Amino acid sequence: MGRADRYVLTGFGLTLFFTLALIAVLFVVADAFQNLDEFVLHLRRSGAWGGLGLLGRYYAAKFLVSVGSFGEIAAVAPAVVFAASMARSNEFVAVLAAGRSLPRAVLPVFAGCAAVGAAAFCLRTAAGPTLVRSENASARVIFDRAKTMGGALSVQGRSGATSCALSVEEYDPASRRARGFRACLVEPTAPFVDIRAASAEWDSSRGAWVFSPAAKKWSYPVSAGGPAVEELAEFPTCLGPDLLEAEEMGPGVLSTGALFRERSRPELAAALHERLALLLSPVALALAAVPFVLTTDRSRVFTGVAVAALVIALYEVVARSFVAAVASGHLPALVGAWLPPVAFGAAGALGLKRIGT
Q1: Cα–Cα dist 18/5, whole Å
Q2: Cα(251)–Cα(242) distance, rounded to whole angstroms?
Q3: What would the pLDDT profile of 46-66 be if each residue is shown by its tens digit?
Q4: What is the model's pLDDT at position 149?
Q5: Dihedral angle of Cα 331, 336, 340, 343, to the nearest 10 degrees
């Protein structure tokens, strides 16, 4: 790496740092004003130091979760700003005079965008579930909510011809215990099964909900007659607490491995491929947006920045719409999650090639 490349990479890194710092300040201020009444009540309950410490953990987790969700914007916005600053200060003129093309001059910027995308992917993969749980745990204390998830959480699944619907009145992620457990099994050629228990605990080694005391299982035959009742000690199922947490806190609470195991569910397949696409989308979006500010004409820089901003906004609309279509089952996950970055990246690469020639 030459001196020029180190200069460009350092400039991009500083622009990225200050951009994220500015976004963090605006993010915290806007959210704090929206929840000011709740924060004041929390500080009165917990005291100044304890309350401020919890607020700090809450906003740190919430901001990092947001950055992980919008990794491509966090990378490309500083890239456009830095490239525009180089154009405004006539640095591209010096680049051309030195015999370098403009695409080669900003190559470290694209490398930096790739690094940010990889960092965002690692953040969502390694720390994402922990951050989401931390944010929700802090929110329950700050906003004086119950320590358990409430609201009759429910998930549905299918195994062959058998359909299963599982619901709980409350679920505690810390102990992995549920209260008000109910599961219903429907199969065309078998009796309707209704399982109810006052409490249940998830046993990951057996892949089953364990009941103490035993659950009641009602089997309703197709023919006339009363249901058969028996006691049930455990209920093996693929509908575990991960899906209950995803129902309450969104797919971000699931690890990449858990998303892969549950990829048969459209909404989780969409979340999985959207997370994997973070490895490509920042570079693809940078290829599509940055070329508009690669100019030696200072009078065209503002127009280039405006067009680049429109490209970023268009990409976000298209990408989010495609992911929503995948989550609703209207598009395959490979198409919905990967087509926008591939299409925008290919178009940007063609435009960058024309600039280079």
Answers
A1: 20
A2: 9
A3: 777 777 888 888 888 888 887
A4: 45
A5: -70
